Amino acid sequence: MASPTITLNNGTKIPAIGLGTWQSKPGEVKSAVEYALKEAGYRHIDCAWAYGNEKEVGDGIKASGVPRSEIFITSKLWGTFHTKVEECLDQTLAKLGTDYLDLYLIHWPIPLNPNGNDPVFPKLPDGTRDIDHAWDLKDTWKQMEAVYKKGKVKAIGVSNFSEKKLEEILPTAEVVPAANQLELHLYNPQHKLLAYLKSKGIVAQAYSPLGSTNTPLFADETATELAAKYQLQPADILLGYLLAKGMVVLPKSVTPARIASNFKGAIAALEKLDQADVERLDGVAPGGKQKRFITPPWGVDLGFDNWP
Ligand SMILES: NC(=O)c1ccc[n+]([C@@H]2O[C@H](COP(=O)([O-])OP(=O)(O)OC[C@H]3O[C@@H](n4cnc5c(N)ncnc54)[C@H](OP(=O)(O)O)[C@@H]3O)[C@@H](O)[C@H]2O)c1
Hints:
Order of helices and strands: EEEHEHEHEHEHEHEHHEHHH
Mean pLDDT: 98
Helix content: 25-40%
Strand order of the largest sheet: 3-4-5-6-7-8-9-10
CATH superfamily: NADP-dependent oxidoreductase domain
Largest sheet: 8 strands, parallel
Radius of gyration: 19 Å
Number of strands: 10
Number of domains: 1
Bound molecules: NADP nicotinamide-adenine-dinucleotide phosphate
CATH class: Alpha Beta
Strand content: 5-15%
Oligomer: single chain
Number of helices: 11
């Protein structure tokens, strides 16, 4: 069974189901990636410099025996590298053991002090995040365009960009971002932002599609009811719903049975859910269940609705 694909605005095809790797621990992530590629049908792995596990992800890719050309690899530029995009990219390429990425994203629209007190989360003496307020996001995007033009990455995009943040880079962008990776799930569907992305030809990628660690979504009334109706798992309904809305989904698991069932179940749910089901699921968050799970304390206004 093959993953459905979506065509990005530069013609590149992206498999709509990718394996997430955030919080996948050393000693777990290599076998998870190997299993996903070799046994479960995945052809898309979602990585990031900041996850600190790209070397092991690369080992898993190699161990799978699946040719590099058949795998879609995404990684992300960390905040402390906004002024030196190619340096971060080169570190990621070396760790993953590849000479190109299929998609490279700006992880957050937040440039962090590259010379601060920590390489990942630099903080000021008062404990707040050490943000490089003088740096302009437009210049980060220019550097993203440069590595794209060099051919080191096949497509470029953003992550955690609200409409407000996209409007900071779009007026001077030569290349329109191909994708925006966002927290998107039953309880945080971001209907307004999705309509805006569609109008710009930017594909939405759903992170934390199951509601992340210790999710309450598997117990949601509507999801469990539809799961029973179609003899699927709630996880399948959560993923199939997002696929039906034209998004890429990035479920993370290091558990072989879940890695396999998320892939198969997402496709099965995509086939079964009808328009009325999708509309019903669309109404769950506006009906009182709206909730975000990933809200790092950046201390700046990102321009998102429903940010605490
Ligand atoms: N761009 C960003 O800023 C950003 C932020 C967050 C996430 N992401 C990306 O999106 C990916 C997914 O998000 P996420 O990791 O936050 O959360 P998620 O995929 O929504 O949920 C992962 C959690 O659900 C469990 N799980 C997975 N499948 C399951 C199933 N079928 N039944 C029961 N439990 C299941 C996993 O446990 P086990 O692993 O123990 O099986 C894990 O605890 C990340 O890994 C990362 O690649 C990106």
